[in-house]
Amino acid sequence: QVQLVESGGGLVQAGGSLRLSCAASESIWSFRSMGWYRQAPGKERELVAILPPIGSTNYADSVKGRFTISRVNANNTVWLQMNSLKPEDTAVYYCNAVELQSTYWGQGTQVTVSS
Q1: Phi, psi of 87 (to 5 degrees)
Q2: Burial of 96 per CB tally in 10 Å (0-12, 13-18, 19+)
Q3: Is pLDDT of 97 > 80?
Q4: Is the N or the C terminus of the chain less surrounded, counting Cβ atoms within 10 Å?
Q5: For 9-108, where are the E strands, in sequence order?
Q6: 53 with 30: CB under 8 angstroms?
Q7: What is the predicted pLDDT for the residue at 111?
């Protein structure tokens, strides 16, 4: 069973930065893709950024130019660098990993951006 553990959330003022980490229990190269999703109160979970093993990353329009997803191979970790944060970025952020027949989620980490 794959485990994903997120960290790095917290409270930050608008315009600030945070970096989220997702540590996987197995090699991140074994997944078809890894990504970050978020869910704000009263809203559906939405894609933030996705990172395939090969090829270009994809970002939600709302975070393009502000967020960057990247991998740290040696530590089986995927980062989400979040800059120029806005109050509307407030949500629980979830790490996601997709295998051929399974999808895994982390427990989530809260990000709160104050105005």
Answers
A1: -55, -35
A2: buried
A3: yes
A4: N
A5: 10-13, 18-24, 33-39, 46-51, 58-59, 67-72, 77-82, 91-98, 103-105
A6: no
A7: 98
Please state, in angstroms and rounded to a whole number, the distance separating the CA atoms of residues 70 and 3: 19
DSSP-derived secondary structure for 56-84: --EE-TTTTTTEEEEEEGGGTEEEEEE-S
Q: In what order do the strands lie in the sheet with 67-72?
A: 4-7, 18-24, 77-82, 67-72
When the pLDDT of each residue in the chain is averaged and rounded to a whole number, the result is 94
The β-bridge partners of 54 are none
Which burial class, exposed, middle or buried, applies to 54 when counting CB atoms under 10 A from its CB (0-12, 13-18, 19+)? Answer: exposed
Mean pLDDT of 12-32: 93
Please tell me the distance from the alpha carbon of residue 71 to that of residue 22, in angstroms, as a whole number: 9
Q: Are strands 18-24 and 10-13 parallel, antiparallel or unpaired?
A: unpaired
